[in-house]
Fold this sequence. Notes:
By secondary structure, the protein is an alpha+beta fold.
Amino acid sequence: MIHLKNSAQIAAMKDAGRITGEALLIARDMVRPGVSTYEIDMAIRHYIEKCGATPTFLGYGGFPASACISINDEVIHGIPSKKRILREGDIVKIDTGATYKGYVGDSARTIPVGNVSEEARKLIEVTRDSFWAGVEALKVGNRLGDVGSAIDELVRKNGFSTVKRYVGHGVGTDMHESPDVPNFGTPGRGIRLCAGMTIAIEPMVNVGTFEVKEMSDGWTVKTMDGSLSAHYENTVALTSDGVLILTEVEKGF
Ligand code: MG
Ligand code: MG
């Protein structure tokens, strides 16, 4: 069942979204060669708690940290560690969430570590652009397939591939609510979009094959062929006045 939100609920989600977005800004500003993913995770946790919110990821399904931090060919769900040190040329995906007054924000960014390859830079840009292509199609009366196909079309046009196994989702009092929001689809197909829907749109884009594999740690997901992967996610609300990007606190990031 899809839980539609009224304007008061969307306002509460905006607060959770802002805290989530601010935590990601703090994380971004820490990214440089020599920093461990553990340090970034702790900074995120402290910021969220300082705001009077709860790190949504911590303990979620047994996840041991407040952010998923995934490097290079790791797609999602990387576990922060003192042993994972960022190196020049890496790309790092930071995905986190905050629960505030019962509502959740969920957002992710891919950040270059120092100078990265031209291909890595293009991958990060195309992934971000594909999110916005999805938002363009997010209109009352459109279908979910319009959103997914807009994302996938832009990705394929740029020679990359969209992960199929993991998808976006509804967000509300739970991090994962109905419906699933795939980053691919058929225009005009899928459920009809209506005002009050709050969803996480989160393209995961690979340089090579769309196929992925899970690691033996039970969490980390990598590209099957070892190619680079990028991720871009915001929690958004569809209203009768248009789309609100709840987790965006700085334009262009
Ligand atoms: Mg997320
Ligand atoms: Mg998500």
